[in-house]
Amino acid sequence: MSAIETSRGTGRRDLLVSFVFLAVVIAIPIFFPSRYILGQGVTLFLWATVVSQWNIVFGVAGIFSLAQMAIFALGGYIAAMLALYLGVSLWIGMFIGGLAAVLFSLVIGMACIRLKGAYVALLTLAIVQAMYLLIITDTDCFMKVGVTCRNFTGGTRGMSQFGDFGFGDLFGRQYIAYGNYFLALAVLMVSLGFAYWVIHSPIGLAFKALRDNKLYAIGRGVGVMKFQLIIFGISAFFTGMAGAVFAGNYRVIGANVLELPLMLYLLSMMVIGGLGTFWGPLAGAVCLVVFDEFLKEIGEWRLAGLGMLLMLSVIFMPKGIVGVVNKLRGQE
């Protein structure tokens, strides 16, 4: 069976998983309408969006970039700054933040052109840390609000008071949680649709060829520079939009989204779900968000529990949840 025919067969299963997931999450607000559950749903959708796009770079193309949370933060900060300093609606800022994230990601991609493997990981991690330090060391007074001095990036306190998406004004305060829930879900579904197209298109096959056998791919006419810049750019737009939705939902964004534990948490979602697959990152996101909810009861042992889950997953499920499902269906 050819690679294209195999991709089509896998694609049909991926679509089925997407429709089942969509039906379940649309039903949740009907049967479980509490604000807490809706808030957790927003968190799940945003992290799943980030992971689904990160998976295109890390899992499909095999580029060990760790800059995804910097792209996420940039999208959120751009939207928040536009709203706070220029009065731009967060709806517009969300798209501008996505475009700014694309430009930022292209710059990162150009910096990584001649690097590979661990060197890409080190450079992109350095970019994340540099961005983190720039934010937390921002102590200069950018503007005064009454007697309070406001830093340009918000510094260690983060950015706030830039408003939200206006669901309270449109539908009433009791429906704000519903509005944020379905907005985050819409961003996730569009980003999943885009990830599906990339993974199952000829572009996706080119990415996989570069990942599996770079010299052979180059010999077949696949341009490394062209496709690396493409993959950095296309994975950034929805990540940046997710950052803007995060800012609008929580009405604050700070340097904590760039901290190492959160990055490792999202990276674990890809590993546990299945790197390089369509619905693996989604399954990993659901698994870890639900598991983390139970671990909140044990407080300081939470990170140890997550680490144990990741270790067991790597040992017993090296290909993630998707690999286990495929094995049970007799496909491996």
Textual characterization of the structure:
- The protein is mainly α.
- The protein is built from 15 helices and 4 strands.
- The strands form 2 sheets. The chain has a two-stranded antiparallel ribbon.
- A hairpin with a 2-residue loop joins strand 1 and strand 2.
- Helix 3 (68-86) packs across helix 11 (236-250), helix 12 (260-273) crosses helix 13 and helix 12 runs parallel beside helix 14 (302-316).
- The longest helix is centred in the N-terminal third of the chain and has 29 residues, at 3-31.
- The chain is globular, with a radius of gyration of 20 Å.
- The two termini are 15 Å apart.
- The model is unreliable at 1-6 (pLDDT under 50).
What brief labels describe this structure?
mainly alpha, 73% helix, single chain, disordered N terminus, two-stranded antiparallel ribbon, 332 residues
How do the strands and helices of this protein lay out in sequence?
Elements (H helix, E strand, L loop, with lengths): L2 H29 L3 H26 L7 H19 L3 H22 L6 H19 L6 E3 L2 E3 L8 E2 L6 H5 L4 H24 L2 H11 L1 H6 L4 H11 L1 H15 L1 E2 L6 H14 L6 H16 L6 H15 L3 H9 L4
